[in-house]
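As a warm-up, study this chain.
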Amino acid sequence: MRLYLPRFYVRELAANVTAMRRDVAAAAEAECDWVVFPEQFLTGYHGEGEAAQLREEFARLSAAQPGLLCLFGTISEDGVNRQYWYRAGEAIAHYDKIHLFLPNNEDQLWQPGSRYVALKHGEWRIGLATCNDVRFPEQARALKLNHDINLLVYPALWPWGRDHVWAALLRARAIENGCFVVGSCVAGVDNGVERFDGAGNHVFDPLGDELHGQDRVYALDAARLAQVTVDTRAQYCEIEQIELSGGDG
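Now compare it with the structure written out below.
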């Protein structure tokens, strides 16, 4: 799989839409299979954008490049942080962010999602999560154990000052599940209502080695999946709870 990860700087909406069109065209020109845009790449946290109109633009861009699988995201009319898979002009699946980031008051901005989502695309079984979801390994494990995913994707709006945390968590999800993990992050935001320096894009193979792209294109070799030699299956056991008596606690 050839994957295109934009380095997307969020400005005002018209400029963002122009940049989105440019990145989709660049991904198609580079003969990529997939382009993954970061979380809230058209609006940031507080920028404006009509959800229905943005989806129309997503559909037009996708229809113009029918061989390209596109991952776009925006806030839906019902107030969830939603990521859409588009192919040949159609939204074929979507995922709503579950684990909202409370320090940024995301719980006051959006409603949480309620389901995990996996997608089969050729030989790839893809699980989708969003940004702060990476802190919750049980989500990745559920996708691995129930759907045997071999690729996990995290669009994000993660701060540059914690890029080392972002990279460490992505790497951990790759190693513990024996799958590829992709983190596509906003490069920065300066849209007139907020300013933000974003973390980097990171791609890790199933052994936890970081892959480095060229001109924003990353090559994911499925043969690397066979190099995983550890057993990543889970064994569930009952938990023994022991209550200690005596003492003052």
